[in-house]
Structure formats: structure tokens, C-alpha cells
Amino acid sequence: MTMLTSSPTSATVNLQQLMDASNRNDHRLAQALSAMIAASAQALATQTSTNQAASAQLNTVANVPFQRFRLDSRQVAPNDVFVLLKSHTPNCQKSRDYLYQAAKNAAFILSEIDPIALFATANVPPHANIALSTDDSQSVAQQQLDSLPCPVLYVPNIRDFLGDLIQSHLQHQQPVTLPAVVAVTGTNGKTTISQLVAQLTQLTGMSSAVMGTAGNGRLGALVQASHTTGDALAVQQFLYQMGSENAELLALEASSHGLDQQRLQGMPVSVAIYTNLSRDHLDYHADMAEYAAAKARLFDKAHFPDLTHAIINIDDEHAQVMLDTAHASELTVWTYSLDASKTATFIAAKIKPSLQGVEISLHTDFGDGKINNLDIVSPLLGRFNVANLLAAMAAAVAIGAKSNVGIERIATAVAQLQGAVGRMQRVPSNDGCFIVDYAHTPDALSQVLASLKTHCKGQLWAVFGCGGDRDAGKRPLMAQAGLAGADQVILTADNPRTEDPQMILQDMQAGMSAEQYQRTHIEPARQKAIEYAVNQAAADDIVVIAGKGHETYQEINNVRYDFDDSVILQHALEHAGRV
Ligand SMILES: CC(=O)N[C@H]1[C@@H](OP(=O)(O)OP(=O)(O)OC[C@H]2O[C@@H](n3ccc(=O)[nH]c3=O)[C@H](O)[C@@H]2O)O[C@H](CO)[C@@H](O)[C@@H]1O[C@H](C)C(=O)N[C@@H](C)C(=O)N[C@H](CCC(=O)O)C(=O)O
Ligand SMILES: Nc1ncnc2c1ncn2[C@@H]1O[C@H](COP(=O)(O)OP(=O)(O)OP(=O)(O)O)[C@@H](O)[C@H]1O
Ligand SMILES: N[C@H](CCC[C@H](N)C(=O)O)C(=O)O
After folding, report:
1. Which residues is 91 bridged to in the sheet?
2. What pLDDT digit, counting tens, does each position of 471-500 carry?
3. pTM over 0.90
4. In a mutational test of the pocket of ligand 1, which residue from 95, 97, 98 has the highest number of ligand atoms less than 8 Å from its CB?
């Protein structure tokens, strides 16, 4: 991720000053800081004997000068504030280690975890007969806490305002106008739509940037990041950096993990887009309802107070949750659909796809006083990309309204839009058709294959695997999606991460029939699998290499080896004399 390595100036500040400045400029943060003080006071009052002692501790921390916020104990330098966040799987030993490491340098620590409870667990021996009493263990914990080289303030609700706090600190050092933010959520389509929104707004005169799976920054100069949605510090620093580089619009991807963990708190999201929800990440979310609820946070003004517009795909079966949340937040709700028989704000009334792209008859009625019927052409492949285009156009209309950029201008610009790298990306060949795509969910793979099947005169081939250390339940579903949509399937490795690739392949094969085995080739080495497809496919066939898209590595046992599907495919085509 592009990150500022240091704050704009090295001047120190304290929480009281931030609060005073916020009272003048930004009531939201002032409210948040008051809430922090109230929550901490309440928490402290249960630990210290008097409210007076609690407010004394708060005052001390509020007046300690500091330089930067840090969320990672390994990066804490002298005069930094360390914010200790809970780990997704609670682990007291791990959190204590982070606390000790940070305390060596930190000016003070804001802790989401009750520090007394954290130390008390260390003081309770595993054998009950020699256990300290609860009181003893609490008082030992208090002593341990007091002996740390810096104060620790328990702020259980810190995630509710952490992004605001970090941004106010950056702004206090040097004020910057922040870009407007369009955020996209959903299982599939986030990268594509965010990049389309950035291109569209740029073509209509804005300075735009993106943040997501394919990287962060200006299109054409993206810097790869560790996460689709970075942590609160990374995303706020990036927002600030884009503001200081005069970006007027940031189109970002809101992953369900990011929303659930409030990594985007404080992002000035004004337009929120929902694409779809299908099986993925059930290693993290308990079920689809919980997964949907995480996505719905993006449409809730309580979480994103700058929201004005919600843009929702009503062809999706989980759309109602988003619609309800958006309506409850009194947003302007625009819907989109590929079904001409439905009532939606943006409808693709006719779709004429080909292997060169698509022609769309767009029908819109978004309250500009007229009903628009517009003919649109796009080089993007795949029926689902028509939905992505509708979402992007709707967002561009919402953003463009302030500067009077109308739907006609936006619709004309669509012809110039490029798809995201590694999504339905055609790799040139003399014959056949070879495509690299990022489908890594059963639904995405089904949609990609269904779209290509309509253009395929010969056989349709699918080469794919499943990632390790990710939702294992989707593995047989991916294999079945491939087998249902393609004539020939080649199962291979994706990013095994710390898992055994053979075991992942076995998981994928669960429930496969004899007929399915007959048209399946299993080749764990991904390069060989791609070469096999290139050598076997006939001139009328279409081959899709799915799952890794833009990725330039294959991750095996924590090591990332150079691996780029499009490069490997190109070499295989050259070697086979097909280019
Ligand atoms: C399940 C999940 O989301 N885990 C994330 C979570 O890890 P965790 O809760 O186990 O926490 P942890 O690593 O103990 O860190 C807890 C806190 O301690 C800090 N820390 C950590 C280590 C240390 O030595 N010192 C220290 O202070 C961390 O900075 C953090 O603030 O917090 C970590 C720090 O921010 C993340 O790196 C980690 O992402 C893991 C690596 C991950 O794989 N996440 C994936 C699933 C993810 O988030 N994916 C989505 C995209 C999904 C999609 O396709 O849609 C994404 O947005 O990228
Ligand atoms: N609207 C859509 N509906 C279904 N599938 C889609 C849609 N858009 C894209 N896809 C499929 O999903 C793949 C990933 O697309 P994209 O990168 O845009 O999604 P994403 O939500 O950003 O994914 P991730 O966050 O997991 O990286 C594409 O390569 C394509 O196969
Ligand atoms: N953002 C997704 C990407 C998956 C891509 C696929 N190639 C894999 O490694 O599973 C994830 O981290 O689950």
C-alpha cells in the first residue's frame, strides 16, 4: 500500500488539543472523543476506587504529547500512541506481548481490550487448587499495569471513532481537502466497479483514485497492498495522501472483513454500491445472513454519516437487506437490473454480447425530470459486466450531479472504459480464445462460463483451483460450478498458502461423478495445467484460466513465488506456435 512513512510534520499534539480543534471544526470527532472519554470513564470507574481517580487518569493521558498513531506494536517509535486492537481470534498472550512491546516506546496506549483482564488472565495458574483469588489476581494485574513505562487507557469502543481520530490528527498537522468517496461492496465485482467509477469520473473531468484488491492509487500506477480494505490507519493515511495529491474522488472496495472490523470508520463515503452476495468467506462469517449484515453496514448512516446515495443490484437475492438499511438511513436509493421486466432506476433493457464486447440499451429514470433511453457500447466481456457498468454509471451520475455532468456525457464515455487487469482479459492468439479471469467463487465461475458458453462454437475449458487458508466449504462448489459450466475442466493449485495442494484438490473432488471425472484432468502444478490446456484446446475452443487474475505471485508456505497467469499463458501460446 502507498503509505505516508511519517506524519506531515513532526510536531507533537495531545488529545485535548485535538478535541479543542475538533470542537471548532468537526463536531463529529468532538462527539466521538467525548464518547471515548465517557466510555473510558465508565470502564475505569469499575476498576479504580473513585470517579475522581478515573478522571485524573483520563486527564493525564489527554495531556500527553504524541507524534503518530500506530496500530502495530512492531512499528511503535518514541512518542507514538499505540492503539491495541483485539485479535479476531482472542489470544491474551498475543495481545499482552503486543502491549509489552509497544509500551517500551509509546507515549501512551489506547486499548480496546480491558488491560486488567488481560494481565489478570496471566496471573491465574491453570490448576484450580493453587489459583489466586479473583481479588488477588486483579490487584496483581493492577500493579503490573502501573509498572508499565507508559499509561494504558481502556477504550472499549475505540473502533467507533478510530478512523476519525487518525484523520483529525493528520488534518491538525496540515489541513487537506479530502476526496469524495464511492465505496463498493459485494462478493464479486468490487474491483471492476471501483475501477470503472474512477475511469468514468476521470473522463468527465475529475481527478480520481482507487483503493482495493488490485492496488491503491491512480489508475495505471497502482501500488499493491496487503489487504483489499486496509486497517484504519492505512486507509486514513491513504485517504489523506490522495487529498494532498488533489484527488477529488476515491473509489474504494469495502470488503466484508473490513466492514465487520470497522476498518473504514471515518471514511467520508457518500455513495455506496452493492453488487451481489454469494458463497465465500464462510470461514469468517457464521452464515450468509451474517455475511449480508456485514455488507449492509455500508448503507447505514450511523456508520457512514456522509452517505447520500445507495446504488443496489436488485437482481441479487440478498438485495433486500441493503435496501432496508438504505431506506432506514433515508438515502437516495437507486436500483439497477439486467431484467427488462423489472422496475429499476437503471435497466439494461437490451443486451447484445459478443466476444468483442457488448451493446446495451439503457433505460434510466433517476429523478432528473426525464426518462432516458441510451445506446451504449463497451469492450467489456461477460453479461455480469453489464451489471458492473450500470452500477458505475449510476455512481458517476450521483457524483457528477454537483458539477452538472449528465447521464448522456457519462453514457458516451462508457465506450472508452477498460476492464480491470486480470478480469475477462483476453490474451492474444492466432486461433482459439484464451482468457484470464479472477473468478475465485462458485458464482463468479458460473457467471464467467455461462457468458462465454454463448460465444463458444467448440469446447469450453476451465482451468482453476481454490486458495488455501480460505473457506474450505466453497471448494467442491467451485469444482461443480466449473463442471456445470465447462465441457473440459482442469483442476490445479491456486494459492495453497499453508495448506497441502493435494488436500485442497481432494476437497474439490468431493461428490464428483464418474461422468465428471471423464472430462476432468488434475494437474497440481499450475504452469503445467495452463500448458496442458493450451496444447489440448482446438481452434474453436475457449479456455478460461480462472482464480488468480492480476496476481503476480503464487503463495506457497508463506513464500510468494513469481507467477502471473497471463504471462505463463502467453509463453505457453508462443511455445505451442499459437501466436
Ligand atoms: C481474519 C482477518 O481479517 N484478520 C486480520 C486481523 O487479524 P487478527 O484479528 O488475527 O489480528 P492480529 O494479527 O492479532 O492483529 C490484531 C492487532 O494487533 C496488531 N499487531 C499485530 C501483530 C504484532 O506483532 N503487533 C501488533 O500490534 C495488529 O496491527 C492489529 O491491530 O487483523 C490483521 C491486522 O490488521 C490483519 O492482517 C488480518 O488479516 C489477515 C492476514 C487476512 O488474511 N485477512 C483477510 C481474510 C482479509 O481481510 N481479506 C479481505 C478481503 C476479502 C475479500 O476477498 O473480499 C481484505 O479486506 O483484504
Ligand atoms: N457483477 C458480477 N457478478 C458476478 N461475478 C462477477 C461480477 N463482476 C465480476 N465478476 C467475477 O468475479 C471476478 C472478480 O471480479 P472483481 O475483482 O471485480 O471482484 P471483487 O469483488 O473485487 O473480488 P475480490 O474482492 O475477491 O478480489 C471476476 O473476474 C469475474 O469472474
Ligand atoms: N480476496 C480474496 C482473493 C482470493 C484469490 C484467490 N486467488 C485465492 O488466493 O484464494 C481472498 O483473499 O480470499
Report:
1. none
2. 999 999 999 999 999 999 999 999 999 999
3. yes
4. 98
